[in-house]
Amino acid sequence: MSEHKHTNRLQNETSPYLLQHAHNPVDWYPWGEEALAKAHAENKPILLSIGYSACHWCHVMERESFENEEIAALMNENFVNIKVDREERPDLDQIYMNAVQLMLGHGGWPLTVFLTPDLVPFYGGTYFPPEDRFRLPGFPRVVTGVADAYRSRPDEIAETTTNFLNELRRMNVAHESDEPLNPQLLDAALSTLARTYDKRHGGFGGAPKFPASMNLEFLLRTHLRTGDGQALDMVTHTCRKMAEGGLYDQLGGGFHRYSTDAQWLVPHFEKMLYDNALLSRLYLHAYQVTGDEHFRRIAEETFDYVVREMTDEGGAFYSTQDADSEGVEGKFFVWTIEEIDELLGEEDGRIVSAYYGATAEGNFEEKNILNVPRPAQTVAAELGMPVERLREVVERSRPLLFAAREKRIKPGRDEKAIAAWNGMMLTSFAEASSVLERADYRRVAERNADFLLKTLRREGTLLHVYKDEQAKHHAYLDDYACVASGLLSLYEATGAARWLRECLSLTEQMCEEFWDDAEGGFFYTSAKGEQLIVRNKDFMDNATPAGNSVAAELLLRLALLTENQEYGRRAVTVFRLLRDQMMRYPSAFGYLLGALDFYLSTPKEIVIIGQAGADDSLALLREVWKRYLPNKVVAQSAENDAEASSVVALLRDRPALGGRATAYGACPCPFGRVAKRAGTSPAPTIASPTNIYSTAVLIQPATVPFGHFCKKS
Question: For residue 84, which of 45, 50, 64, 219 is within the disulfide window of CB 3.0 to 4.6 Å?
Fold first, then answer.
């Protein structure tokens, strides 16, 4: 690394990624007026480098090129050099990633893009080595060639930029389909996903293999809708394989970013908040569907990891943990069998190594990534011991291994808080607090919601990122949609009307600032934000759900609670804009397919009237939350709460029958709404998951069996 002889303008930034480059000999600027004005004044092209702190190849390119005095001198002489953290400025990353994908057919980070002073791209790539290798040109050759082309071939550059700008604008055009929105869309998506499913190892496709949590959530919904056993098998098999592999941190909980192989063994070791938000919720839902305690354990260990490692004292969730420690990828996480034996003793060490697949040769660079390659019964039989003895040794040893690992030098942690990712994690904690009856998870969710509303909001406007007591950048569509969705989930879990009021406030602002009145759908950037060369629409669900997908589901849920049909109309417009793309590329629309599933179902409207925290209220809530019912809304309040019923239409005219907590169920059909008192014996149940999808949950009077149904008319 650099010996800090140099200091550039990044030293005043809060982003850990930018600060990592603050002592490069490159004369880096952050994105802003100073750099852009310099490019115009000197008619210099811009060298734009985009990455993030947990990116392994970003660190490699820094060491090889940006800390190299000669390469830095070439960059400084010929370009205005701008460094961007993609997690701080996803709007810039989207535009210029699209440009590089148009150029190369693929993209990645570090992203290296050359722009005119008017910010239009004309050449780009990803990682470049310091000299020609990997079939890539050396970075000095690239820099020199691009600078020469900009000076000597202005007409060619002008033509290239015009073409790129037209293509980038075309990418944001989508037209509403005239074809119907019907369950055949969902059935076709299932067929497509099934064709790419890996029956042996789970997941989709080959190496590298990503968790695809949103597609797996869609398959869970499909199982509920159709009873399709294959859809459920794809989810449960994949969830088991991921949790048994090196993708999952066997000692500390939580998931790494992705697997470099098809069998989930060798991960890319960084841990991202958004992956753990999505996967903790997936395992929570798998537990609801199957009752398998293994899935519950993985969910809880992931939540506990986030509380322990990724939460600050103010309630914010941190963004990422690096793959590297001490400059070596994965060093923190791997073991030799000698280390295991020394810590546990030879006998327990032998048992634990056998269980976790650790060998003298190792499975990763002569060391071992702990994983569970074989069932406990198989390992116990090979060792000639009862399986209970094996499990007892492993469970006793895990905290010892974890404590020893905690003494190692930890990977770096990016401690900025991003609104959208916090909103996703808030949703997961809120839901888990009800499903698992964990009051501690509810407190985590409430503290996070307080942080978001107090710290990431200024004069009513949501901000995108927080670090070192500074909140900045106008929030993007996914920030608004994910935070509002998290607040709605917290309202459903707690019944506290303030969370719903805040959700509605953000939703109204989102519709006002992001909705495209001309073409429909939501723009990624606010009308009040910085004006860039194109105003993107983010449609595809990638590593995180697209803002349009989250917004569509949010609006459907709010339409039921508030009876504001304008919300529903906007959601349907999003579906119509993307209907044909969902048909062609369902794997890129996993979250949106889930929202469409909500729309095409008969969603359950469940109201609990009773004293918050009282035993009879909790008994009814327990019945609601123990089942997997993704297409529902839950409203709860005390009897005659005028303030709550003024916001939530479902709460109006709902007495507590006989002075006891009462649950109301409703559906949009002629049979109306009926109610059931709590406290009857035996304990009430709602309905079996095999039937409940296509029917409304109606909680009937005591004279009628509680699981009685109202068929959709």
Answer: 50
